[in-house]
Structures are given as C-alpha cells and as structure tokens.
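Hey,
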Amino acid sequence: MIFLSAIGKIVIAFIQSSGRLGLFFIEAITRLFQPPWYWQQIGIQLIKIGYFSLPVVGLTAIFTGMVLALQSYTGFSRFSAEGAVATVVVLSMVRELGPVLAGLMVAGRVGAAMAAEIGTMRVTEQIDALTTLSTNPMQYLVVPRLIAGVLMMPLLVLVADVIGVFGGYLVGVYQLGFNPGNYLQKTVQYLEFQDVTSGLIKAAAFGLIISLMGCYHGYNSERGAEGVGRATTNAVVGSSILILCMNYALTAILFNR
C-alpha cells in the first residue's frame, strides 16, 4: 500500500502540474489578443532571444553539419553510395537536426534566463509591485516573451540550416574531395519546400514551448534562492522534454503519408 500510495502521489502531482500549466497557457494566450501591448518589451525580448542566441546556435549548427557529413560518408562508403552525402546532410539539417538542436540550445540559454529573471522578480516581490501599479504581470512579462519566442525561433532555425549545410559543404569539398558543383547540385536536387516549412513550423512550436516553460516556472517560483534555482532547472528540463515529444508529434503529422 505504501508503494501504491507513492505512485498515486506522483500521478496526482503530475496532473496538478499539467493543469496549472494549461491554465497558465490559456491565460497567456487570452492576454495575447488584449491590449495594451508593450512594444518596447517585445523588442527587447526579440533581441535577447534572437540576436544574442545566434553565436551558440551557429556554432552548434556548423559542427553538426560537419560531423554529419563525415559520419554519412563513413557509412555510405560501405555501400558505394557516397553521392548521397549532400542529400542526407541537407535533409537531416532542415527537417530534424536544425530545429531540434537549435531548440535545445535556446532552451538552455533563453529558457533558463527567463525562469531566473521572472523568478527573481517573484522572490523580490516585483511582480506584486506591478499588480499594485495596475500593470498586469502576464501582459507585461509573459506575452512579450511568447511573441518573441514564436517569431525568432524560425529565424534562428533558418540560419542554423544554412550554416549547418555550409559546414557539410566545407567537409565534403575540402576534406572528402567532392566536386563543389556536384555537391551543390545534390544538395538542392531532392530538397522540397515541405522540408523547409516543416522545420520552420517545428521551430515556432519550440519557441512557444521554451517561452511558456521559462515564464511558467519563473512566475510560480518558490521563495528564496533555492526556489529560483529549482525553477530554472525545471524550465530547462521541461522545455527539453517537451521539445523532443513535440518533435515526434509534429513529424508524425507533417510527414504522415
């Protein structure tokens, strides 16, 4: 009975957390379509999420493309199919690796920053001060981050795709000895518009998840430094898990033929 009671507590806690997250998401989406809109805050978040995430996303993308080209060549050379390296690199980056890796890196950087910032505001009662000043905290803190996350993640993923494919091109041409023109031809030959759009749709969903989890855990942070640290950890872990789950769901929907 003690074992069953422990399982029951875990299940109930999970359902309660899911319910609170769902209500938080509904309130945030409702506030999204209600004035006022704080354009200055939206602009600040666009810069924080988009511009300042470019170095880490670009570095991750270029080395992923380079490693993918090396690994593909090593595997395909066993079947005399080295010509498919360019196609595998571009499809893998655009469909899966670009959105997922960019989402995970942004979750680690931006999601943690959101949770820490809003959690600190909760601990120091700045959120209560906003309410006292007749400023809705959801409207001022959460909505700009949701908008910025949804808008900037597709742009970051688009940049990551280009840089990743360029990394594969560098390895393929200058290390593996492919003909540059032939490699570029193979890169665009089997790439379809749906491949690019599916990655951008995933990126927008990942941006929503990262912003939502960062704001939720920061907004509901417990008192003290330990509570802020726990909120930051939960935001990153929760965002990463939801990104992987959402990636599978969107892949099953977008490529279900």
